[in-house]
């Protein structure tokens, strides 16, 4: 959700006074007016009609590819867990994922990421933006782009939601709209699974609230009639959505789900937030990120992954089943991704350290050819031996699977800026 919407959610980080609001609008009007976002309007309208959605399962801290999608049993780097066959002949994944092993027909594994940044902060930014910021240009992250491309101005639901309720690694959590503007920032939920202060106060009747909204809209429209400012229009648009967003608060309430569905997902916070993510995409939210922390297993890697991968296996398989049974999976992509993987070498603390040279992610559902593996690492998982890709290639693949041309361009002033870096190309082998 955009920062402007967060002002109405009572977030202390985003609260702003009337004077501060007007000051910010005036200060940013000049820079925003230089941004041309009218990119292929007919194509954009068609994408919005198709109701495509993305759920990103962000494995914060760096999950091990060796204990998930790219096991190396019997090798010195392999660790104690075996590889098991899946429902697709020839594909094996970690024994910690038996439920996903039976659902591989909807999932493609990419085993050949080389993103070259093994730091939490830099790696997380890279895997959210698909490239590095420039000194003069701040790029939008995946959620902001998809909110812009797949969201609707008149939607009554938030178009970019991010759950990160753990404390570990929260400083590395990325929510950046860059040159797209604050309209496309996420609704960031960091303390609980439901936005604060989204409901109408009991002391204000629905009629009073409607009339206040109409009065504000009347005055605002008169104010901008003779002022050509994209910043003011963006503020007005955000305000106009408030009543609809307030009505969406029940989407975050899992008590509205049948108990049988809640039991299927399980009692963990990650499970609850994935269930909310399903509720949101079903209602029309284009992008939801659910973060599960903390995978940074420098010590006791195998105990950590026994717990976390087992949870991921259960929740992810339940989410895919739920989406599929509701007819949503064909229009919803589910991604597992982290800032990097973990070293094949096992350290003295029985841990694995940061490793960005040869690691894995998964793509399921919308636009994806399931039941396949792209790329390969060597026998010990030290290097990519086939199909090496970087963050930009992955982003190009995601965009193309959703029907978005990754090489289409925005313009900041007169400068054209493509959605991915100029050398990036989609992995067509995983596209349906």
Automatic annotation (TrEMBL):
InterPro entries: Alkaline_phosphatase_core_sf (IPR017850), DUF1501 (IPR010869), TAT_signal (IPR006311), TAT_signal_bac_arc (IPR019546). It comes from the Bacteria. Pfam families: DUF1501 (PF07394). This is DUF1501 domain-containing protein. It comes from Blastopirellula marina. The lineage of its organism: Bacteria, Pseudomonadati, Planctomycetota, Planctomycetia, Pirellulales.
């Amino acid at each position: 959700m955009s920062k402007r919407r967060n002002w109405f959610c009572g977030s202390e980080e985003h609260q702003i006074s009337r004077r501060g609001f007007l000051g910010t609008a005036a200060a940013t009007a000049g820079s925003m007016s230089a941004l041309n976002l009218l990119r292929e309007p007919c194509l954009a309208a068609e994408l919005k009609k198709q109701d495509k959605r993305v759920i990103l399962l962000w494995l914060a801290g760096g999950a091990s590819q060796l204990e998930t999608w790219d096991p190396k049993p019997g090798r010195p780097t392999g660790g104690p867990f075996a590889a098991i066959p899946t429902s697709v002949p020839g594909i094996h994944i970690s024994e910690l994922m038996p439920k996903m092993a039976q659902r591989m027909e909807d999932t493609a594994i990419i085993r050949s990421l080389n993103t070259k940044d093994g730091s939490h902060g830099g790696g997380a930014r890279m895997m959210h933006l698909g490239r590095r910021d420039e000194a003069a240009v701040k790029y939008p992250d995946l959620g902001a782009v998809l909110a812009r491309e797949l969201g609707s101005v008149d939607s009554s639901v938030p178009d970019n939601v991010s759950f990160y309720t753990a404390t570990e690694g929260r400083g590395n959590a990325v929510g950046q709209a860059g040159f797209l503007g604050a309209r496309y920032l996420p609704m960031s939920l960091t303390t609980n699974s439901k936005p604060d202060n989204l409901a109408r106060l009991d002391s204000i009747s629905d009629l009073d609230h409607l009339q206040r909204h109409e009065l504000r809209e009347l005055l605002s429209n008169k104010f901008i009639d003779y002022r050509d400012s994209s910043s003011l229009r963006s503020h007005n648009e955000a305000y106009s959505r408030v009543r609809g967003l307030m009505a969406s608060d029940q989407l975050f309430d899992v008590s509205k789900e049948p108990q049988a569905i809640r039991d299927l997902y399980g009692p963990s916070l990650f499970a609850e937030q994935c269930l909310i993510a399903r509720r949101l995409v079903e209602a029309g939210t284009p992008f939801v990120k659910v973060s599960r922390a903390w995978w940074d297993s420098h010590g006791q890697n195998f105990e950590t992954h026994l717990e976390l991968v087992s949870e991921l296996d259960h929740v992810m398989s339940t989410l895919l089943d739920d989406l599929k049974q509701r007819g949503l999976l064909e229009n919803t992509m589910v991604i597992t991704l982290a800032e990097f993987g973990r070293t094949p070498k096992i350290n003295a603390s029985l841990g694995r350290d940061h490793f960005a040279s040869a690691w894995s992610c998964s793509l399921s559902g919308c636009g994806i050819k399931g039941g396949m593996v792209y790329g390969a690492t060597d026998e010990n998982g030290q290097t990519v031996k086939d199909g090496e890709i970087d963050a930009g290639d992955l982003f190009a693949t995601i965009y193309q699977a959703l029907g978005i041309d990754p090489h289409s361009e925005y313009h900041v002033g007169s400068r054209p800026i493509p959605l991915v870096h100029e050398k990036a190309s989609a992995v067509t082998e995983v596209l349906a």
